[in-house]
Every structure is written in C-alpha cells, then in structure tokens.
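**User:** Everyone, produce a chain:

**Assistant:**
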Amino acid sequence: MSYNNILESIDDNILTITIDRPKKLNALNRETIQELHEAFKEAKNDEEVKVIIITGSGEKAFVAGADISEFADYSPKEGKKLAADGQEKLFNYVANFPKPVIAAINGFALGGGLELAMAAHFRIAAENAKMGLPEVSLGVIPGYGGTQRLSQLVGKGRAMEMIMTAGMIDANQALQYSLVNHVVEIDQLLEFAEKIAAKIMKNSTVAVAAAIKAINANFEDGVNGFETEINEFGRSFGTEDFKEGTSAFLGKRKANFPGK
C-alpha cells in the first residue's frame, strides 16, 4: 500500500515505518495519523511482520509535534474530538498493538511526537534526540495520552515538571528518567533497534502478545493486572507455541515456534 507521508520497508520480519514529512520536521497531521493507522492495521494481519520499528526521516526529527495549523481555530468540541479520534486511531492502537513496537527516536520528539514514542512499547534514542511536551506554551495540554503515559514512565513529579515548564530534555536525561531504554549514536540507531527486534523474534510471538496485554492491564483503570496475567498464563498452556517451547526445552534443542 502506498502512502503520502510514511514509508515502509520489511526485512527479516521487521517492518520499519518511517514518517516522511521532512519539510515539516515529520509533524503529525490528520492525514499522517490516518496513514499510520492503516499501516499498523495492515501489519496486524500480516503474518510476515513480527516486530515494528517506527522512526522519522532524516536526522533532525522523529516527529517534531502535531501540525498546529490544522487545529488553531478549533472549538472546544472540535478539540475534544481531535484528541479522542487521535487516541483511538493511533496512540492507544499502538500502545495495545499485539506485536512489539519499538520507537527509534532520531532528533526532536516533541508534543505528539513524544506521545507517539511513548505509545510504543519501548524507546531507543539517538544521541541527538530532544524530547518534550511543550503544549502549555501554546495554551493547551497534551491530548494524545501524554499526561498519562509520561507520568507512568518517569513518575508524577518529573512529568509535572516537564509538562508545566514545556521544556526539552536530551537523550541522556531521558535515559536517566527511564523515558528511553537505550541511547546510541545516530548512525547505529536502526541497527541497534533491529538487533533487539531479532532477540524478541527468537521467542514465541503468541507469548509476547500475551505479555504485552498483561503488562498494559496494570495501567488500565478498573482492570486487575494480576488477574489478566493469570488468565493469559492459563491460555498459554493451550497454544502450539507452549507445546513446542516446553518440548524443545526438555529435549535440549532450539525451539521452532509456529506462532499459534
């Protein structure tokens, strides 16, 4: 499928999605959000895709925010719908995606860009990365899950400070805050992400999807994460991957998971 604002490439079961609006520093507009939704939706049903890496084109920006020109004159009702639609189509969709999603952050990840990176299951940053949620400097707040996911990742106090000051932090500070898992040189960013993806793909895709669901359950209101874990653990016993994994372990051989 062809898109106007994103590029796709697949190699060794790793799908790399690149947001490609370099003149806008890869800012998210409605069309790009819709295209990303379609790309993830297609990847969900593509058996060839095991892991997704999302990044931005060039070295200047992962995503430098939302395209403010699209909503500068919105009413409160329109603003609420903008946030709700965006969360449903992209940000929550990515966060709950059953296949691992790795954000490879190159350059600026601001506003909606950081929110997208935080929706991914974990983040790897290039040394030149700069991250922040500057929305209050525009008289608005993060609307794509930023107030929730940032506090989950870095803690309430640091999230309060980052959002209220509208400031940016660099890659090393993001690592210190546990906002990102790793910091690497810019020319090693995708290769490093691919190495982690390769490690993930050695394991059961069914079990990985169950783990994503169980981990996310801990952050959902009204959901007992321990209960979700128990249920997913139990379901694992009925999968072909479990039979293969245990058989391989007992037979002292490498598992060849069927993904079922």
Q: What stands out?
A: The mean pLDDT is 95. DSSP finds ten helices and ten strands in the chain.
